[in-house]
Request: fold
Amino acid sequence: MGPTEKSDFLSTLPGVLIGWGLPTAAMLLAIGVPHPVRTWVWVGALIWMGTACLWNAHRCKRRHCF
Reply:
């Protein structure tokens, strides 16, 4: 395991679940929820995922992240 792989969130199941799985699940569960609540769940989930992506890019420094 190289230094890039070790610091990459996508190389571990917990990293994937926390960074992208939980927000995706929240977005899917919010589909049947009334409009204002659904909107804020989606906004929060997308901010969470974007932050995880940027943090991962900063940590692993892989080219595709930038």
Q: What stands out?
A: The mean pLDDT is 86. The radius of gyration is 14 Å. The helical segments are 3-7, 13-29, 35-60.
